[in-house]
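Exam revision sheet. Question 4 asks you to relate a sequence to its structure. Input first:
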Amino acid sequence: MLANGMGDLVVFVAVARAGNFTRAAAQLGVSPSAVSQTLRGLEERLGVRLLTRTTRSVTRTEAGERLLADIAPLLDQIESHLGAIADLRQRPSGTVRITADEFAARHVLWPRLLPLLDAYPELTVELITDYGLTDIVAERFDAGVRIGGIIDADMVAVAIAPPMRMVTLAAPAYLARYGTPQRPEELTAHRCINLRLPTHGGLYPWEFCSGDNEFRVRVNGPLIMNSVLQILDACLAGVGLAQLSDAHAQPYLDSGALQEVLGQWSDSFPGYHLYYPSRRQQSAAFRVVVEQLRLDNRPPAAADS
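Answer key, structure tokens:
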């Protein structure tokens, strides 16, 4: 039997409009006996007869006419609103909030998201730059972007950039003045630019690889910064050695503005990933953003006209 409350009113409106239990039952996808039982229960609770039943027809009583006039427009509005909400799942619209570091926002996300803003005018993307490991659920973000190896296991992670390599580099003027280190342990005698980790507050240890063995070197120097882009600027100015991803450094290595050192101890690591809660209910807007950012994505489909 259909549930009480709103369901009873839906059944009443269907019968009152159809003037027939069988036709109303077919519209509702239930049996005529269930419709009859629901209407009988509604009338008992209200203490008034709503419909007059004969073997050939169903007519509304005065109370039934009044209830239909009051309730039917409200139910129609509710159905219209629910339909509009359901439509949002099919049409990319609304706001998708993403947190990412500055480099990922500027060089990975923005170029790929730009076509979506033209294709889907009802879509809004909010990009918040942050180097910390933001709790995207607590901060009400739809997704975050971080290096693949530091994403929690309970998150869905989608690769949006190829693997990267951590490179140690310096400006030619620095190497001419202070010399070129030949082994990672020699860095302790050099001027190095440190990165302050925003999440835990510690300094980022420089990582190296020898065969299958990975090791870290704690370095010192005249600058400690919390932005990779600031470190890049300081390295270009000849302040000291820096360790950055090749994604950050490659244009400057290609131009000769920076030179790589200790390349034989460099190793690759997972690139940028988009991550989001595994149990989130995805909107059409979020799905189209994920597919556009996916590393092996295809061009987005044109928006519906």
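Marking note for examiners. The first helix runs from residue 6 to 18.
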